Amino acid sequence: MELCDLSALEMTQLLRQKKVSAVEILQSTLQRIGQVDGRSGALDQTATEEDKEKVHSFITLTADEAIKQASVVDAQLAAGKDPGVLAGVPFTVKDIFCVKDTPSTAASRILANFKSPYTATAVERMQGAGAVMVGKVNLDEFTYGSSTESSAFQPSTRNPWDTHHVPGGSSGGSAASVAAGEVPLSLGTDTAGSIRQPAAFCGVVGVKPTYGRVSRYGLIAFASSLDCPGPVARTVRDAAAMLQVISGADIHDSTAATVAVPNYLEKLEKGVKGMYIGLSPDYFRIVFPDPKTGDFQEKTLPKEIAEAVRHAADVLAKMGAEIVENVPMSNTRYGIPAYFVISRVEAASNLHRYDGVKYGLRTSLPYTDLRKMYKLSRNQGFGLQPKLRILMGMYVSAAQYSEQYYQRALRVRSMIRRDFETAFDPAGPYHLDALLTPTTPTTAFEMDAVYGDSVLMQYADQLTVPANHAGIPGLSLPGGLDQAELPIGIQLLGADYSEQKLFQIGRAYEMATENETWRQVKPKVLR
Amino acid sequence: MSEQITPEIFDHLVDLAALELDAKQAEYLRKQLNNQLKAIHELEAIPLDADIPISLHGVPFTAAESPTPREDEWHPYPNSKEILSQAPQLEDDYIVVPDIPHTTLK
User: Fold this and answer.
1) Are residues A395 and B28, on separate chains, in Cβ contact within 8 Å?
2) What would you measure as the largest C-alpha separation in chain A, in angstroms?
């Protein structure tokens, strides 16, 4: 085991004991990146056969700046100063966050030359806690996708467990960089499952916090009522420690809630005795359109995934949790159709700012007037997925269709929220502490297998998107491996601001399963 | 179900969106839009009681959970040139854009 394979909290402990330096930890990290990552994503590149064996987490590696930051941490420790709770811990940042003087591309050609004049609050808080940013990692263009394949910066990220499979998305670079042992922590975003789905596909821990728990300041917006920054980590403890650092009110974001942030580590190992954990049949079947006919069909989940969730329930029951069966979550299936409407309307609105005037790409082609310049710049700068979202957003929010589509979707969102309110109501019939579900309907699919079918790709988020509609927190944990040795993710969903409870359950499961065979298997790129 | 987004509606949307697509892109995008609308139509089958409100956010924002709005005061940005330097075309700290489209009135 190398230094870079340690958890974030193990690293800080060794650092404080002066057994290692921050620079040594960083060197181990950079060595691992050199071994497994291959070339970084860039415009106008395509994947070669050699590329197909590497991970390609990064768009921008900031090694020189990272060495400076690590040296500062070492100097602070030598001077007897406290460098922060995540001192010397390397982390990556999804390239949808602005970081001052660093390219902030959103994986789009239209922002390829953009250097932000300021740093996102979540990144600033990580750096303030002594963590060392080693680079910006790849994602689906503007976060629009579930496989990272739509990035304009190719080769796009590949799954460390099998590089011929997708890492999930849109935070594919975040999840892959953590799974490959490049870093113990990454900052991602989750709009429909974009942290939890890649975390599940890459066998790591992913947290979508309650909407408003983490500031969105400096996050390049997709769907402003759904976007949530959150941690990707290898352990529940690390995820909790990172959320502790990035959470809380922010003068720059009026939607960052003023609700006090509890000490997430304090009760982490208190167990689950007496907790009520629900299972819902509505999370064990999926409804999706047939790729050829477009007709909707209902299927039960793959056996291995359903069994992994059932196994987790059994493990928690043995530890004293009460498992509540048959919790109705009947509006789950409407999450994707409602998301198709709400997210597109918000995306279209957010993407109007890219016009070749203030920043970003302005076309190099000849133009006659302002309107023509807008069109050429936007056509050249945006890939197919942003264009698709702009067009759909404009269509469903048009005055003549708004009631039929947009307003209806917003009311369906209320119904999805009500399902959760009923399940978690302490005075209600189920009074759950958490709902236990699969994170995804499949394990990581092969590269190119779904890309291009925007409908089927969206249905990869069917089990994660309800939490975004409802605003509630969700935690995805590794829950086993399928026959192809690809990770299976299990998900815990809780009431608003119940992250502490989800961490407690997740940690209990992690401890109870630490000696299971599948936990000893490493991603292929590390074998 | 017939295609809801016809080539004519599609072209109108493309113009409103300030895009300019080649034929291959247009064909792909229009097909995907119509496929997505099929999924969206599932919403129409849901019985919605009259009392179900619109939710703009999942988590309700009450005064107790929201920060007090800061005063609406002007503060100079410490380094405005840094922001301006991102503009594709600049002249004496002004962002330069091409002429607006002109229409000759009859």
Assistant:
1) no
2) 72
